[in-house]
Amino acid sequence: MKLRQKPIVIVGAGFAGMTFALTLKKLNPSLPILVVDSKTNFIFKPLMYEVLSKEIRSWEATPKFANIFSDASITFLKNCLTKIDFKENILEFSDDLKLGYQYLVICTGSVPNSFSIKGVDENCYFFNDFHDLNKLNSFLKKSQETAFNRKLFIIGGGPSGIELACKIKDIFKEQFEINLIEKSNEILNKNKIFNREQAEKALEKRQINILLNSTVKEVSETKIIISSEVGITSLDKDIVIYTAGVKPNLSYLETDQITKKFGRILVNNNFQIENYKNCFAIGDISVVEGMEDLPITAQVAMQEGNHLANNLELSIQGKDTLPFEFKDNGEMISLGIGEASISGLGVTFSGKLAFEARRLIYASKLPDITESLKSASSWIFQKKSFLKKFLKKDNSN
Ligand SMILES: Cc1cc2nc3c(=O)[nH]c(=O)nc-3n(C[C@H](O)[C@H](O)[C@H](O)COP(=O)(O)OP(=O)(O)OC[C@H]3O[C@@H](n4cnc5c(N)ncnc54)[C@H](O)[C@@H]3O)c2cc1C
User: Fold this and answer.
1) Is a pLDDT exceeding 90 seen at residue 119?
2) Distance (Å, rounded) from C-alpha 222 to C-alpha 175?
3) 3-class DSSP state for residue 281?
4) 3-state SS, residue 330
5) In this structure, is the dihedral angle defined by the CA atoms of residues 371, 377, 378 and 382, taken in order, positive or negative?
6) How many Å lie between the centroid of ligand 1 and the Cα of residue 14?
7) What tens digit of pLDDT does each residue of 288-342 get?
8) Whose CA is closest to 189, among 204, 179, 202, 199?
9) How far is the CA of 110 from the centre of ligand 1 (A)?
10) What domains lie within the chain, and their CATH numbers?
11) How far is the CA of 44 from the centre of ligand 1 (A)?
12) pLDDT value at residue 166
């Protein structure tokens, strides 16, 4: 009697997990693949600012996993991973379900990291998932009914801080006085120079205050305490949004269960976890040995998912795998309603054209979902089908 093959289990269906699952299924449709995620919907995080500003509708950035995976003939299970027994190849979930696996791919993304700054967890808003977005949105909306010039602070001068500051200013105008706090001496210090310059102009145009070389020491119910060259300052606040860091979401791992670097799972160039050759970690939760400087982005997560799928198929066929190489396709940031900045592959441009290009590029990256959803009068899916036709035409030349 032939025993049923254990599945390839993917835990976390974000950018890394979804790309991996869809690519592998295309390469080898007969493989048993099971995708598990604790949520019902995929979240296209780079489009969360446009959902906040209502430039796109919320469902456009959050297609249902059930639709995406049933279209691809992949089994999807909604459940939350709580434990891994790497030696026995068994996963445990929050409802006590136990599952065996042939191969395991973990890609559970990031959660905000408050670096133990006093009061941040209790008194700040975050912008990492749809729960955060809805909570922030309802506070901002409620504020519209009250006084003008309410004091809004954003901690972190990275892409999230800048993109949020510009969108909120464009939506709520004089409702908020926006202050952006950055601990280094410039905003977007890990980003492309062109995008940094465009962001500086966008912030200046919107009269958003930038507090550089400033470190947040504490956030209380009513105050924010900042340390800078002028000493310690305590300022009144109405709302503080924290965007200054993330950490890997690894709540299901036991202390010292596997080797980590910078708090993330250390993997080799094949994304394998040390000592467990059939287990892989990709996306925000892992760091590739020798490639520690890779940014924590969707672009990296998708390339890792794609590469691992190709490698796993090669190794199933008994062929040699290929080492991962990151291809920098550039970066895009939104800078308020209808504006963006793009820098990559030798091209730099900003403004309305960049905004349209950014949406078009993201539309092409959204996972394929059912025809019924695509046919709804949605900007993003109309553009996606247009783009597909265009690419087909282009390829046939
Ligand atoms: C507001 C915002 C804007 C961003 N903009 C950009 C951008 O413009 N460009 C860019 O390249 N990157 C951007 N990023 C970063 C990018 O979104 C992440 O790097 C990317 O999502 C990482 O992909 P991932 O697959 O590792 O994790 P995620 O996409 O976060 O997916 C993780 C998945 O794991 C699931 N999960 C977590 N824990 C469990 C568990 N225990 N059991 C089961 N499932 C679990 C989650 O529900 C989730 O679906 C942005 C991030 C944010 C927050």
Assistant:
1) yes
2) 18
3) strand
4) coil
5) positive
6) 5
7) 999 999 999 999 999 999 999 999 999 999 999 999 999 998 999 999 999 999 9
8) 199
9) 6
10) 8-38+79-111+247-316 (3.50.50.60), 116-244 (3.50.50.60), 331-396 (no CATH)
11) 8
12) 98
* Cα of 46 from ligand 1 centre, angstroms: 9
Q: Round to whole Å and give the CA distance between 351 and 334.
A: 9
Contact status, residue 315 vs residue 25, Cβ threshold 8 Å: no
Q: Which two tokens stand for residue 173?
A: 């105008």
DSSP one-letter string for 52-114: HTTSS-HHHH--BHHHHHHHTT-EEEE--EEEEETTTTEEEETTS-EEE-SEEEE---EEE--
163's tokens: 């993109």
Q: Whose C-alpha lies nearest to ligand 1, atom 20?
A: 298
Ligand 1 binding pocket includes 153 (Cβ within 6 Å): no
For a substitution probing ligand 1, which of 45, 137, 359 has the most ligand atoms within 8 Å of its CB?
45
Structure tokens at 92: 């445990």
